[in-house]
Design brief:
By secondary structure, this protein is α/β, with parallel strands linked by helices. The protein has three domains: 1-129, HUPs (Rossmann fold); 131-165 and 213-299, Alpha Horseshoe (Serine Threonine Protein Phosphatase 5, Tetratricopeptide repeat); 309-481, DNA Cyclobutane Dipyrimidine Photolyase, subunit A, domain 3. The chain contains 21 helices and six strands. It has a six-stranded mixed sheet, sandwiched between helices. β4, α5 and β5 (123-127) form a beta-alpha-beta unit. α6 (149-158) crosses α12 (277-298). The longest helix has 22 residues, at 277-298. It starts with a strand and ends with a helix. The chain binds flavin-adenine dinucleotide. Flavin-adenine dinucleotide (FAD) binds at residues 236, 244-248, 251-252, 285-286, 288-289, 292, 351, 354-355, 358, 376, 380, 382-384, 387-388, 391-392, 395.
Length: 482
């Protein structure tokens, strides 16, 4: 029997710029592409329902792409070590290849797999594919870790020229899937058997909103670069327009790599075009993704602990009633509720609105940022532990390079500034459709007759907190830990 190479897919569901796959294709052995759903590993056990929905469709798309090359994607549901052990034993596997993951728990568990394979006498190699640069590459002059974004990104920009995504090789003949030999630990299954789709059909709007998979990610990027990138600096803050790339989930599941995004941007605008304010601003957002991933790699406790230690003494109130109202989009604050309803119905929320709803939860409602991050993690299709945790800590004022605690977003003035006509709030809260733009972000400020006419407190709730008072309570609480 000819020797085999396993290519183990995780959050890298693409053909292009996929170093593990491309190394596997170039090796002279048979290729076995696999995906293992292992609920004992953190990435799976903590994966929220919205992300599971995305993963199901992403796996389907990836399976189709591999099929066109003549390859099957073998899906397993079981323990990673046992699956690999069976495959190795029965198929003359000489190497297992995968792409590196950087969040501490995935990093550690992938290392364990590597040691396990070593014990079986099988080589393993992992490759950089998730970020622009390896976390240990980006260091300040004294060799330390950047904790402030601007110098971090400046340092990254110096190396941007080096970024060269790997092109998929031209194949002289179709690669063939070999018949797979399995032993007693037979947990080969179909994508459907993973049970990633919801039992209760709450995902109808997801289907209308998203086109999942590598091909769609690439089309989405081209469309963004052709029609939106140069206006990005202005339009990215307007939640009623599609002014951003909406590629965060595709990047998270690796349907497209950040290196491909940089390369395509460079091809579209040329090196000098990268200075265009819209384009530079867009690339710097990718920089925030990079910054978050690197920081979590260096500070593994970030998901549990505020980076600024004084926040561990913060007197969170954690009212369950407030938390539930926030989750359901029933706080009576239109900009907050619109965002939370967009999240629930589509699995995504505009970045400006993410900042507004997060600030409202941790400051006006005094709910611990970790509870907000948990809800986002369960509800976002793009839920990414590094970006999520770092962003929550940024809004809460307890992270690195964070927004100061006393900067409390006022959801009314934010709404008036970024959604002046009320289009966004009316889209997600139809109960507010009849309200003129003057009141749409603060209907409780209109006279009683108007409020009754709009059904305020009936069809749509009155605010659960007074914005001014709750702001003062939050500032006083902050003084107590300073
Ligand atoms: C409280 C909170 C939680 C968040 N949780 C997540 C999360 O779980 N996963 C996630 O991918 N992003 C998260 N973000 C960041 C940001 O909101 C989303 O990345 C962005 O809205 C995705 O839309 P887009 O693809 O159109 O972004 P674009 O504006 O097109 O930006 C391009 C890419 O840059 C990255 N990016 C943009 N902004 C940020 C940021 N602030 N931090 C890190 N990366 C960024 C994303 O990969 C995005 O696709 C969070 C932000 C906040 C305030």
């Amino acid at each position: 029997m000819k020797a085999s190479t396993i290519v183990w897919f995780q959050n890298d569901l693409r053909l292009e710029d996929n170093p593990a796959l491309i190394h596997g294709i170039k090796s002279p052995s048979n290729l076995i592409p696999i995906f293992i759903w292992d609920e004992e590993r953190d990435w799976f056990s903590s994966m929220g329902e919205a992300s599971r929905w995305w993963l199901h469709h992403s796996l389907e798309a990836h399976r189709q792409s591999l099929k066109k090359l003549g390859l099957d994607l073998f899906i397993f549901k079981g323990k990673t070590d046992l699956v690999l052990q069976e495959l190795v034993g029965k198929n003359r596997v000489e190497q297992v290849l995968w792409n590196r993951r950087y969040d501490p728990s995935s990093f550690q568990s992938d290392k364990k797999v590597s040691r396990f394979l070593d014990g079986l006498g099988v080589e393993s190699s992992d490759f950089p594919a998730y970020t622009l640069f390896e976390p240990d590459r980006i260091r300040n002059k004294s060799g330390g870790i950047y904790k402030v974004f601007t110098p971090f990104w400046k340092c990254c920009l110096q190396f941007l020229d080096e970024i060269q995504p790997l092109a998929f090789p031209t194949l002289s003949e179709k690669v063939q899937t070999i018949p797979l030999h399995l032993g007693s630990y037979d947990c080969l299954c179909s994508i459907g058997d993973l049970g990633l789709l919801p039992q209760v059909k709450w995902d109808r709007l997801f289907e209308k909103t998203w086109n999942v998979g590598e091909k769609n990610a690439s089309l989405g990027l081209n469309d963004f670069l052709n029609t939106k990138a140069t206006q990005y600096k202005l339009s990215r803050d307007i939640p009623s327009v599609v002014g951003t790339s909406r590629l965060s989930a595709a990047l998270h599941f690796g349907e497209i790599s950040p290196r491909q995004v940089v390369q395509a941007t460079r091809e579209q605008f040329g090196d000098s075009g990268l200075q265009d304010p819209g384009v530079a601003c867009y690339l710097s957002e990718l920089g925030w993704r990079e910054f978050s991933t690197h920081l979590l790699y260096h500070f593994s406790e970030l998901p549990q602990k505020s980076l600024r230690p004084e926040f561990e003494k913060f007197p969170w109130q954690n009212s369950n009633l407030f938390l539930k109202a926030w989750q359901k989009g029933c706080t009576g604050i239109p900009m907050v509720d619109a965002g939370m309803r967009e999240l629930w119905q589509t699995g995504w929320m505009h970045n400006r609105v993410r900042m507004i709803v997060a600030s409202f939860l941790v400051k006006n409602l005094m709910v611990d940022w970790r509870l907000g991050a948990e809800w986002f993690s369960n509800s976002l299709v793009d839920a990414d532990i590094a970006s999520n945790v770092l962003s929550w800590q940024w809004v809460a004022g307890c992270g690195v390079d964070a927004s100061p605690y006393y900067r409390i977003f006022n959801p009314v003035t934010q709404g008036q500034k970024f959604d002046p006509e009320g289009e966004y709030v009316k889209k997600w809260i139809p109960e507010l459709c009849a309200i003129p733009k003057k009141w749409v972000h603060c209907p409780w400020e209109a006279n009683e007759d108007l409020q009754n006419h709009w059904g305020l407190g009936d069809d749509y709730p009155k605010p659960i907190v007074d914005l001014k008072e709750s702001r003062q309570i939050a500032l006083d609480a902050y003084q107590s830990i300073k």
